[in-house]
């Protein structure tokens, strides 16, 4: 019999879970919040199902409330979540109890009446809204909205998401059907971050654990946050960008592709959705930023809000200015430079220690114009176009430097550094990438094994040697069961080449020493804590150096074999010639040789040379 949750009196927000009979009783107690979110299931009457999503069904229902002086019936929408494993139920209820008062305080988020349990399923009772942006699109010509409407809804939603983020929550399920419309035609966030509340919880539905969000709108890091993640604020930027594109064009991103195909396009091939031409330049710019593969290169909601507001002003002044054209691809993944959004996330202040910014895929610190300096003055705009005056040790006058060419160093660390946790622990990889360091020393780090950024103090970290794309790596000899599958060669771990580095330090590796056939096309992954760098100079002995050459390209061995065969043939021919020469002095050819010798004696050397091939035995 399915799990059942029963409310216990007198504290209504406490549950007892039991497996059918009293012997199997397990208690899950959820401490009630100061607001009382519990709704008695007997006061709810389900009417009909409005929709079915990955996480559960939405029902239209009636909520009966009565007291001595009133008796009311309200229409409500109920989200009945799919069954969760028992361990997950308590964690989910705790998280929900924490988020509920915050959501109620937010203007742009769907009003949550409370929580109940119907047929053993956690049921979230919400205000019923008459429709969604998705419904409005379905009713409109071409399934799309006009640019002024898109901008207006876009502003509503960016404001709501910003507010939601300010409470340290992510939505992770942004899509037009989740944008509800209120009585004033304002867009409201209809999803209060269900995928985020479910992060890391044991789920009974394998589809749910497979995709935490709606596949067509999911950011690359959202597919496997603990492997290719983590998820962060900018994960919502991707979903927002997809939703805006759909509102503008009427086409759902990756429409017609299966979940597996979308995964391959977004995560493996690093493809981006197409953006229509003819949009206001700020919108086009910000939208193309939404689809940067590395979320650190994407804009934040504040950047988006600013772009949408200024475009709305531009449209108000000239309504005919923008006509949408065909779609353009928003480009290949950007691995070689920092986006303007990346650079705008940290602004320099007077007194900051800085150094020249290194290229994203390089770790080289040599030849830096400013190996270390102090900001002594700020000039021009707040943005990255501005300049700063930097005092460098040994140089008399401060240097005038563009802000974007410098990075802030705080307590010896800078965003992008490779770090290791001083204290070993098993939950996640100890080696990761620093995402931010505040001036007070608090840090955020991406580690494999964690779905979100790790937050802590700089004193808990130590710097480690960085990895970069193009390096050859091999699993350390003491690693017997690596976190990810790895190739073997000659009975030991094979050497692979780093082709991509994820924001949590996870290394995507291929094996150029293996013939590119079948499985080798797939990228392998590696935990940076488990690998060591292999280089030609670090290989001891000729054999090891040769093996390393073999690892660099699969063609080395066949080429060497071909070269060997060619050399052997050449040597064979030469030896053959040498052996053949004395044969020619045998009796059979004696006459000819004698004749030639005679000619030589006559002083006709040229003829002697021409006569030799004729004498070669057949
Ligand atoms: N509070 C609400 N009032 C009215 N309609 C709602 C409400 N919440 C959701 N809906 C509508 O119900 C339908 C289903 O929503 P639901 O969020 O369950 O499904 P989904 O968005 O397809 O999937 P997911 O489970 O991934 O969120 C959508 O069309 C949505 O607009």
UniProtKB/TrEMBL annotation:
Q: What are the TM regions of this chain, as residue ranges?
A: 554-575
Q: Does the keyword Transmembrane helix apply?
A: yes
Q: Which InterPro entries match?
A: Kinase-like_dom_sf, OCM_Kinase, Prot_kinase_dom, Protein_kinase_ATP_BS, Ser-Thr/Tyr_kinase_cat_dom
Please state every residue range assigned to the domain named Protein kinase: 44-315
Annotated positions binding ATP = 79
Q: From the UniProt record, which GO molecular function terms apply?
A: ATP binding; protein serine/threonine kinase activity
Known PROSITE patterns for this protein? PROTEIN_KINASE_ATP, PROTEIN_KINASE_DOM
Transmembrane helix as a keyword of this entry, yes or no, is yes
Q: Which GO terms describe its cellular component?
A: Toc complex
Return the Polar residues bias intervals. 593-611
Region Disordered, as annotated, extends over 593-618
Query: Which UniProt keyword terms apply here?
Result: ATP-binding, Membrane, Nucleotide-binding, Transmembrane, Transmembrane helix
GO biological process entries? de-etiolation; positive regulation of protein import into chloroplast stroma; protein targeting to chloroplast; protein ubiquitination
Identify this protein by name: Protein kinase domain-containing protein
Top-down, what is the taxonomic lineage of the species of origin? Eukaryota, Viridiplantae, Streptophyta, Embryophyta, Tracheophyta
